[in-house]
TrEMBL record:
Domain G-protein coupled receptors family 1 profile: 47-296
GO function term, MF aspect, one: olfactory receptor activity
Keyword field: Cell membrane, G-protein coupled receptor, Membrane, Olfaction, Receptor, Sensory transduction, Transducer, Transmembrane, Transmembrane helix
Family: Belongs to the G-protein coupled receptor 1 family.
The organism's place on the tree of life at top rank: Eukaryota
Pfam family, one: 7tm_4
CDD domains on file: 7tmA_OR10A-like
PANTHER family per UniProt: OLFACTORY RECEPTOR (PTHR26453)
Protein name as annotated: Olfactory receptor
Length: 313
């Protein structure tokens, strides 16, 4: 046993950097992929940037709903900026080297921002619940101080747990390989190349994902059950359609974000494959941030009117 222990120790190498394989299995498509992701990233920056500007400057959009939307757009920009610029550099240079510390920072930032998005989507659902189910109390409940506190809570709630989780993952020993078959530093590929028994760490990741994905989701679900039952009691059809239209944009964003995120983090280990993980990761890191401004602007008369004011005819 002592010899085996010595051999195991000697096989453990201290990893100084990781190599993100990304799309190395598609060498001929690198330039095309670079072009596609550059266009996607520019769209995310412009679309969400415009939403931030109009929700801050337009007098008709100074309501809690648009305050949360502006913050959500800012989160979307931060969230994709943790992943996409790095991915674009890797595609352009055809190198995927990332230092141990940069990998840990990327992993931790990605999780903190992802959890903040989940919680902010729950806050936005609560806002719609108060607006539709308790309209007379809405200005009192959703005052500016309350809105600011809810946004701050969304940002900071997950930080201590996620820093602890990142520390747990990166305190593992990494043996034979430092190659991550993924587009960024994520827990599943890191746990794959770790040596020894990683069951406890995998369990920690799943428990954290379950808690931070499912708790806000259940809050959203409860809010919308109450919203729908209230809307169905409304006497007029126009009142029903107006109430539904204010919620439909939010529901579409929730469906996109939660759908793709849950597939990656909550499905069983046996159904994981590097290729499918990459596809779903691309989906939830790019599709929601790209579509978010479109969903909110195309389905919202106030946003369209505000955009017309600031954009040239």
């Amino acid at each position: 046993p002592v010899e085996i222990e010595k051999m195991e120790r000697s096989n453990v190498t201290f990893v100084v950097e990781f190599i993100l394989l990304g799309f190395s299995d598609l060498p001929n498509s690198r330039k095309l992929l670079f072009g596609i992701f550059l266009v996607i990233y520019m769209n995310i920056l412009i679309g969400n940037g415009l939403l931030i500007v109009i929700t801050k400057t337009n007098p008709t959009l100074q309501t809690p709903m648009y305050f949360f939307l502006g913050n959500f757009s800012f989160l979307e920009i931060c969230y994709t900026s943790v992943i996409l610029p790095r991915m674009l550099i890797d595609l352009w240079t055809q190198k995927g080297n990332i230092s141990f510390l940069s990998c840990a920072i990327q992993n931790c930032s990605f999780y903190i921002l992802g959890v903040a998005e989940c919680l902010l989507l729950a806050v936005m659902a609560y806002d719609r619940y108060v607006a539709i189910c308790k309209p007379l109390y809405y200005p009192i409940i959703m005052n500016h101080k309350m809105c600011v506190q809810l946004v701050i809570a969304s940002w900071i709630t997950g930080i201590p747990v996620l820093i602890g989780l990142t520390y747990q993952i990166f305190s593992l020993n990494f043996c034979d390989s430092n190659k991550l078959d993924h587009i960024f530093c994520d827990a599943p590929p890191l746990l794959e190349i770790a040596c020894g028994d990683t069951y406890q760490k995998e369990l920690s990741v799943h428990v954290a994902a379950l808690f931070f994905i499912m708790t806000p989701f259940l809050l959203i679900l409860i809010s919308y059950i109450k919203i729908i039952t209230t809307i169905l009691k409304l006497p007029s059809t126009s009142g029903k359609s107006k109430a539904f239209s204010t919620c439909s944009s939010h529901l579409m964003v929730v469906g996109l974000f939660y759908g793709s995120g849950s597939i990656v983090y909550l499905r069983p280990e046996s159904s994981h494959s590097a290729k499918s993980d990459k596809i779903f990761s691309v989906l939830y890191t790019t599709v929601t941030p790209v579509l978010n401004p479109m969903i909110y602007s195309l389905r919202n008369k106030d946003v369209i009117a505000a955009l017309k004011k600031i954009l040239p005819k």
